[in-house]
């Protein structure tokens, strides 16, 4: 790819357009940051519905600001009619304006979004977008370190580690009282000591903690790391409200795996007040080096930047791999056509053009369901998806069976041509969702079944089956708590992550719990009705009969035994109806990205029970 540099930078029009684009981006980030900063007040006042509303609305900010900027450029400058020489100057002026900017990488993505809505697509991949970053984010720090830094550092001695931990928490400036601040920080201190060589403090012993708390659902998280010489210990402190509205530190989370669960792709975006987002991403990546930078930007609510980095990673992977796209293994969906590249840990999902009669839906409705999931609190149980349009892939990398599959089921979504005129035949997919690849739950269970058929006492296979069934039920209960009814609850619509979590990923039938009517199957009035294989009672559009789930889900005796032991309530209409009534009454459930046993309050209760049992 070559870029033609203009001979001179003398167009005042180009300068003014570049300035208008910078102004458009700055307005976007100013509003984005202000909404994120207000999360602190909403947390302090327990305004959970306001927090959910802000979460939904903030997702729309970016597209609104892009639209505003495009409208301005067309109205004031007739930007689409300008010659390419002027657009070359616009980009160079824009780069110059980013040199001292605090969010240059986000501003580059904003430029791409605006310019691709104005220019013809044949220009997208040459002179007029940032395919690679032009401005470095290395060593970027906030403008005024007296008022805001990316992270704070504390340098305790052995004798004052507890008091420095207390100062660290106080420095977040939360304006709600703690239930028992000394007790909670003492619990953090005692949980922390066994995790590092506290009897051998090195010359470089410090605690670094990101300046802003991370707000999501009903929690606020302090995120940082303890450094002792060569040892680094990532940690997070979840801060919650108790039933009386007082604050408490719920637990100490530590190590990369704990933090990866908090920053999972299946959880809602955080609200974080950041002047320099790249500094936050760099800090987080130092603690979780296996996680792509794109997913950190997504987790921080900067999904467009996440898309930009994902696409760069994808192009880089394509250059350094030779395998072919194929139809994804597993049971084919009725609504979505799914394909993947074996060497790349994501799947590509295309909405089919037509569906079986039992699927009463449309392309617009399906896209609406995916948007609902994007805006909702995914509580660690619904995979985030990246949405792309007009994506070009080299035809040579596509399996012929896959091409035929797309032509058969989604002909409106595929174009095969040399669209850029460079001699390379491309497969252009008109609209695609991209999600993290997981092991489909039905395949994961089948693997256990096959082992148990050969050896019914195989301990590992028994544990795999039990873990999968228990996690499946837990996933549904977390979705219920978040006001989501999955609709199609078959095993094939759930996947297992590398951390063993069960995540839902088939969204075309989801509904809000509050929009469903959960009913018991009526008593049969006579023997004919009882013996009938057909539904003999009236069923309205949103009626759900939980007791009918069993025959579809529990045909395997081993699965049924585990399910009924742990999740029999999911087959009872009363369970679902009770949750619906609580949600309708305004209750917002707590959903934790860690096991209940990790909570200090649970550990204290267990200690008290043991002490009571041991007392004479």
Automatic annotation (TrEMBL):
Record's subcellular location: Cytoplasm
Entry GO MF terms: [isocitrate dehydrogenase (NADP+)] kinase activity; AMP binding; ATP binding; phosphoprotein phosphatase activity; protein serine/threonine kinase activity
Signal peptide (UniProt feature, chain positions): none
Assigned keywords, A-Z: ATP-binding, Cytoplasm, Glyoxylate bypass, Hydrolase, Kinase, Nucleotide-binding, Protein phosphatase, Serine/threonine-protein kinase, Transferase, Tricarboxylic acid cycle
Gene Ontology, cellular component aspect: cytoplasm
Domain Isocitrate dehydrogenase kinase/phosphatase (AceK) regulatory: 18-321
Pfam families: AceK_kinase, AceK_regulatory
The keyword ATP-binding is assigned to this record: yes
Presence of keyword ATP-binding: yes
Official protein name in the record: Isocitrate dehydrogenase kinase/phosphatase
Organism: Serpentinimonas raichei
Gene name of the encoded protein: aceK
């Amino acid at each position: 790819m070559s870029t033609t540099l203009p001979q001179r930078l003398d167009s005042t029009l180009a300068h003014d357009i570049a300035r208008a684009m910078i102004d458009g981006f700055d307005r976007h980030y100013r509003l984005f940051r202000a909404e994120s900063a207000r999360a602190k007040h909403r947390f302090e006042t327990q305004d959970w519905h306001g927090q959910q509303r802000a979460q939904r609305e903030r997702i729309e900010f970016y597209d609104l600001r892009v639209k505003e900027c495009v409208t301005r450029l067309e109205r004031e400058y007739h930007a689409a009619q300008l010659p390419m020489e002027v657009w070359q100057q616009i980009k160079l002026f824009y780069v110059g304006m980013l040199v001292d900017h605090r969010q240059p990488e986000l501003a580059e993505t904003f430029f791409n979004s605006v310019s691709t809505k104005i220019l013809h697509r044949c220009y997208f991949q040459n002179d007029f977008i940032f395919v690679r970053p032009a401005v470095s984010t290395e060593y970027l720090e906030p403008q005024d370190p007296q008022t805001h830094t990316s992270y704070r550092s504390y340098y305790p001695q052995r004798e004052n580690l507890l008091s420095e931990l207390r100062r660290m928490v106080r420095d977040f400036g939360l304006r709600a009282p703690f239930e028992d601040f000394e007790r909670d920080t003492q619990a953090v201190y005692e949980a922390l000591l066994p995790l590092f060589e506290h009897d051998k403090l090195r010359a470089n012993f410090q605690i670094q903690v990101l300046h802003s708390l991370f707000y999501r659902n009903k929690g606020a998280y302090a995120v940082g790391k303890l450094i002792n010489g060569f040892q680094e210990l990532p940690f997070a402190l979840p801060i919650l409200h108790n039933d009386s509205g007082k604050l408490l530190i719920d637990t100490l989370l530590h190590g990369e795996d704990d933090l990866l669960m908090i920053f999972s792709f299946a959880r809602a975006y955080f609200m974080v007040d950041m002047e320099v987002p790249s500094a936050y991403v760099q800090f987080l990546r130092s603690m979780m080096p296996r996680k792509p930078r794109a997913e950190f930007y997504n987790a921080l609510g900067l999904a467009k930047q996440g898309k930009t980095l994902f696409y760069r990673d994808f192009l880089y992977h394509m250059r350094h791999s030779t395998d072919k796209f194929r139809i994804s293994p597993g049971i084919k969906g009725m609504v979505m056509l799914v394909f993947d590249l074996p060497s790349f840990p994501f799947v590509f999902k295309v909405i089919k053009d037509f569906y079986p009669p039992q699927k009463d839906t449309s392309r617009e409705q399906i896209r609406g369901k995916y948007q609902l999931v994007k805006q909702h609190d995914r509580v660690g149980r619904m995979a985030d998806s990246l949405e792309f349009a007009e994506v070009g892939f080299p035809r040579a990398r596509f399996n012929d069976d896959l091409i035929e599959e797309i032509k058969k089921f989604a002909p409106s979504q595929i174009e095969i041509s040399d669209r850029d005129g460079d001699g390379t035949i491309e497969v252009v997919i008109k609209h695609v969702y991209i999600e993290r690849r997981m092991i489909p739950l039905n395949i994961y269970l089948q693997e256990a079944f096959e082992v148990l058929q050969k050896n019914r006492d195989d301990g590992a296979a028994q544990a795999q089956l039990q873990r999968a069934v228990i996690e499946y039920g837990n996933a549904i209960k977390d979705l219920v708590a978040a006001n989501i009814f999955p609709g199609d609850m078959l095993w094939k619509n759930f996947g297992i992550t590398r951390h063993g979590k069960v995540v839902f990923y088939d969204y075309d039938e989801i509904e809000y719990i509050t929009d469903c009517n959960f009913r018991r199957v009526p008593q049969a009035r006579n023997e004919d009705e009882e013996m009938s294989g057909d539904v003999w009672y009236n069923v309205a559009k949103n009626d759900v009969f939980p007791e009918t789930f069993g025959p579809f889900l529990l045909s395997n005796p081993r699965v049924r035994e585990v399910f009924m032991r742990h999740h029999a309530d999911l087959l009872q209409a009363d369970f679902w109806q009770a949750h619906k009534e609580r949600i309708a009454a305004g209750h917002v459930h707590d959903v934790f990205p860690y096991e209940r046993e990790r909570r200090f309050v649970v550990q204290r209760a267990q200690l008290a029970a043991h002490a009571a049992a041991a007392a004479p």
